[in-house]
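Q: Could you predict the 3D structure of Acetoacetyl-CoA synthetase?
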Amino acid sequence: MVEEGALLWEPTPDVVRAARITRYMERLGHTGAYEDVWKWSVESPADFWTSIWDYFGVIGTRGDGPVIQGTMPDAKWFAGSALNYAENALRGHPGRTAVVFRDESGSRWQYSLGEIREEVARVRAGLVRLGVGRGDRVAAYVPNIPEALIAFLATASLGAIWSSCSPDFGAPSVTDRFAQIEPKVLIAVDGYRYGGKAYDRSEVVREIAAKLPGLRATVWIPRLRADAPEGAAIWDDLRAEPAPLEFERVPFGHPLWVLYSSGTTGLPKPIVHGHGGIVLEHLKSLSFHQDLGEGDVFFWYTTTGWMMWNYLIGGLLAGATVLLYDGSAAHPGTEALWRLAAEEGVTYFGTGAPYIVASMKAGLRPEGLDRLRGIGSTGSPLPPEGFAWVYSEVGPGVQLGSFSGGTDVCTGFVGPVPLLPIRAGVIPCRCLGASVESFDASGASIVGEVGELVITRPMPSMPVMFWNDPSGDRYRESYFADYPGVWRHGDWIKILPDGGCVIYGRSDSTLNRGGVRMGTSEFYRVVERFDEIADSLVIDTGQLGQEGRLLLFVTLADGAALSDDLVSRLRTALRTELSPRHVPDEIHEVPGIPRTLSGKKLEVPVRKILLGTPIDRAANTDAMANPEVLSHFAPDH
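A: Sure. Here are the predicted structure tokens for Acetoacetyl-CoA synthetase:
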């Protein structure tokens, strides 16, 4: 077992000197420690965010209005300014490599910035021919392919509004999202390949299009076959005519895209982010916390239905080459992504924490990663053992950046920075401009104890609104109902005295046993350390202050059995490493652990199912990676 907080990596003087944040601090005249700069960034937000605009030379007019007006949840930024995300993302030398695309079959395409600009201009002109203009919505049902990136930038260049879903989403889940925003154009693939298999989605696309009010056109991107439905517009038609590339500059808070809550229960929240907030936030985060810039090859394993796709595309803002990948992370084997990184000379490799844990359990030792200097992990807490595996098997010189935030802000609140050491299980810092605190039940700020993750001052990438929420009531209820004027994110966090942070999972799925509250990540760390356990889910069925049963569900590794010996060892480990109160009342084997399409465990929906809520009301199965496993949690199973 790896001790939480064990030192794994320290920046050398050369690393500190070369870090982009060091040059930024020197420009500001800040010579203190990172924590001092962070305090300044949250205590003087107007000065800090103005410095980000100036330091990166954001293209646009800033206007003469105040940098920030009002307080959360009604704060407004950079009044009188005008800019465009696409104009900032597409600046730079036209000859540099901007995008590389790979898929699991081995296909590869490469685009210079000049070629991307030309494609964006063509697609922009095609969208105009279809009647798309400022404020209109363009929806996309597409995998992580170059056409998705190009269509997004073309949409943004017009001041139109983008929204995307991965084609592994089912039709009801997609229409739950897109019908809320009433797109004028739908861009869709006829199918996709994953895990060596082809999945035809043409009928699903027709079903989606039929349920979108106001839809004027569906544009098909052939992926499985060369033809398209008779009379349909295809991608080549959309990009058929060359045109000059122009950019509609819009106000700072003008909608850029609509992202969605996971949608595992209820109608997904349509979260709207603005051009300006995303430009500033992604420039800051990618450049200073991921330390990305020109010469870097930036990869994150994601689909277009997860906010990490939007974050990955932001690599263009920082001048990095963006590596897109369409396919399974584990085809033909678990090492697939590491091999991709070696072949493409990736310098920053991002993935979900479960992939790092799976690599560890598979005993992988990735090779050929000579250019790799950073690894990003997000989606769920990475246990200390995952940290240690990276440094023992991937390389002692990489900076492992565990990153935690959310779709709500399309960034991380807490994450890495190249000035600070890496310790097992600990996220190094609160990110610049993110006023993160831990609150106890009374709303008092605490240090060294687990509490609610809150944001006490506004950030420009907070939603400008929810779609179809003109009063703002739904927005306020989502984040500000518990602590007036303070954003409650819904995660458990412990902030250490030195500014390091530990995330313990969702606060709405806390284990409360005999008055001892514990995040589920601590539980999973103990259980999933066993070689026999491939995955696990723990549920506390207590409600209304009454203690219920503590149930542990496990998926076993190949060849393993839920023997009396394994059960005994699990109970002993949990009793010893957590507490006697956290020994499960029951342990059950299940064929799989329910997860969202972005890999998050579905603790709350499973709890509802166990308490008698019908599956179709407890979870949106079309937003799940493996909905077939839910039936194994029904009380009558």
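Q: Anything worth pointing out?
A: The radius of gyration is 24 Å.
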